[in-house]
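ligand=zinc ion
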Amino acid sequence: MLMIDHQIAEVVNQELRAFVSNTTIDPSWRKLVSDLQALPLLGAPICVLVRPSGEFVSFVFESWNGGIPVVRLEDDEAVRTEALFYGITDNPSLRILCLSIPSNAAICWQCHGTGNQSGPVADSCTCRGLGWLPPNRHLDPKSLIIACSGPAMIRGAINEVRQQLSPEFRKRLAKVERDFISFKLSGFDVEGLYRRMNNRSVAQILAEDDLKPDPTPLASGQIGEVRYELYDAPDPRNTRLDDPS
Ligand SMILES: [Zn+2]
């Protein structure tokens, strides 16, 4: 056995033991991990696990009924790289599974691959300090443009772009979108949303949002199933945000 294989087995076995003895984790989930003798790296929709041998296995999480699922060898390299990304960023001791940047990974657009930062800087970077990102995921908000032919299509266009963003940017974009519910209790102000977002990159939209002072709601509550927040009317002198130039 190669030295590195030995180290991988040691780390995965150690993490497996820690996982199955962690009483804050759901008992049926711990039992499954113990039965499979494989450490989960990624939960859903496909659960990807690594065995002490370094082998990746997976099963469809949604069809898990509490028993032992049918696992298969995970042969999709993109899925394996994604699982490594989440596994390592959640648990840095698993870095041993991947000592260099996977060949199909993308260099982090935010830190330009420097990674290895510690503390709040690593936490705030899209790559969480790793320097690389899983393939086809988490694209640069500067390169993602929301574009459609009319207000009726705007929510679909936003949705398409949203799926390619990291969770942090997804959350920030959703916050901008929410402004268009808050002002109109009858539903989405799609015209306003369209004017605000169409033909802009996600980076532009978020930068413009950062310029706005964070308003405190005058009132909030719930009518039926609709939650609402009421804000003061925007300052009419501040027309910059609606200026499409
Ligand atoms: Zn980064």
